[in-house]
């Protein structure tokens, strides 16, 4: 193994003509080749997707036999769930991350120093100058950001992936007001917010300069249907709509999401379950001798992140992979790195045993 086998999260020094493609979790094909383990034999904890999918066992065949024109029933279900009518359905939140930079005037974009790297990748590709702020202290960085020349965009990942930190909504609203006076936009990536409803800006009228990105697949456990939503003022939705081609949200995604978004009882019960499972996973990890020297261990309702030295993180990542357990390695720099653990059914003693055995440094 060499450094290229690991997920390098270090920030780039400046704009580059050809940005490295970010690495993602869930690539069992890649790691099966690297470690000689069949894809079906992995315990995959690398994605942050709920292991408890919405229970829909079949999709009628006729759903796949017609062109996927947009179904108004999905719009109604999504509007009720997200608390706003100003929504655009898209083929995954990743699509918006790729296309939103083209909708903004050029200048500087402020992003967390730790966070989902596709954001920085695409703002850089669009020619924006990148300014970093501490992922855990956006409020403390506000004064410095206010002095940033030609700041056009502030990106907030809330909750942050992988740092598992949440910025208070009051802070975001105050920042949005300040940005509006400068003609700048606040982009809130709420991909992990479904499991923590109190961390979302949705449910009230959004300011004209706020764009919220939501993912369907993570909380509902259906990442393969590729569905997300953008909530924003009509100007932003129209700008993104112009970049959408016909039939971009497939029929299966629309069928599944319409039913899942309407199921309030399941949603409430699942939020409670994920919170309990996440807390139990954090307790399990904190009890492992291999992680006793970790600098911090934080959680959201969909993953637990451990901050440790890069050297230790690489050793643990490699040891787990050799034993068929795939976790997420995210380098902050040469000294520090996050290990992110997705959830699994902790009531399954076999799965819990696999993780603890993989973490055992003997």
UniProtKB/TrEMBL annotation:
Its EC number is 4.1.1.81. Residues 69-330 form the Aminotransferase class I/classII large domain. CDD domains: AAT_like. It comes from the Bacteria. It holds the Pfam family Aminotran_1_2. Residues 1-23 are annotated as: Disordered. Keywords: Aminotransferase, Cobalamin biosynthesis, Lyase, Pyridoxal phosphate, Transferase. InterPro entries: Aminotransferase_I/II_large, CobD, PyrdxlP-dep_Trfase, PyrdxlP-dep_Trfase_major, PyrdxlP-dep_Trfase_small. Its cofactor is pyridoxal 5'-phosphate. GO terms for molecular function: pyridoxal phosphate binding; threonine-phosphate decarboxylase activity; transaminase activity. Pathway: Cofactor biosynthesis; adenosylcobalamin biosynthesis. GO terms for biological process: cobalamin biosynthetic process. It catalyses: O-phospho-L-threonine + H(+) = (R)-1-aminopropan-2-yl phosphate + CO2. Decarboxylates L-threonine-O-3-phosphate to yield (R)-1-amino-2-propanol O-2-phosphate, the precursor for the linkage between the nucleotide loop and the corrin ring in cobalamin. This is threonine-phosphate decarboxylase. It comes from Hahella chejuensis (strain KCTC 2396).
């Amino acid at each position: 193994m060499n450094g290229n086998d690991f997920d390098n999260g270090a920030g780039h020094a400046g704009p580059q003509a050809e940005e490295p493609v970010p690495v993602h979790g869930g690539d069992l094909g890649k790691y099966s080749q690297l470690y000689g383990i069949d894809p079906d034999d992995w315990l995959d904890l690398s994605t942050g997707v709920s292991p408890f999918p919405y229970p829909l066992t079949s999709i009628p065949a006729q759903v796949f036999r017609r062109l996927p024109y947009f179904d108004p029933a999905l719009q109604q279900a999504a509007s009720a769930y997200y608390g706003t009518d100003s929504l655009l359905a898209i083929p995954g939140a990743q699509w918006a991350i790729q296309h939103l930079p083209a909708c903004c005037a050029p200048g500087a974009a402020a992003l967390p120093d730790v966070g989902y790297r596709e954001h920085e990748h695409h703002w850089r590709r669009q020619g924006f100058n990148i300014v970093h702020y501490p992922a855990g202290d956006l409020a403390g960085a506000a004064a410095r950001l206010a002095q940033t020349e030609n700041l056009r965009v502030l990106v907030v990942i809330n909750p942050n992936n992988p740092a598992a930190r949440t910025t208070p909504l009051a802070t975001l609203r105050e920042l949005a007001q300040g940005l509006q006076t400068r003609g700048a936009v606040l982009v809130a990536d709420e991909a992990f917010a479904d499991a923590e409803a109190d961390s979302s800006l949705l449910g009230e009228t959004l300011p004209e300069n706020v764009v919220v990105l939501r993912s369907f697949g993570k909380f509902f456990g259906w990442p393969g249907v590729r569905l997300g939503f953008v909530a924003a003022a009509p100007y932003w939705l129209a700008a993104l709509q112009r970049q959408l081609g016909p039939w971009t949200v497939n029929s299966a995604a629309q069928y599944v999401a319409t039913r899942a978004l309407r199921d309030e009882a399941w949603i409430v019960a699942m939020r409670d379950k994920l919170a309990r499972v996440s807390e139990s996973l954090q307790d399990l990890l904190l009890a492992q001798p291999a992680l006793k020297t970790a600098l911090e261990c934080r959680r959201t309702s969909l993953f637990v992140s451990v901050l440790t030295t890069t050297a230790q993180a690489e050793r643990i990542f490699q040891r787990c992979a050799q034993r068929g357990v795939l976790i997420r390695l995210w380098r902050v720099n040469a000294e520090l790195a996050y290990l992110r653990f997705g959830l699994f059914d902790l009531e399954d003693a076999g799965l819990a045993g696999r993780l603890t055995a993989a973490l055992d440094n003997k």
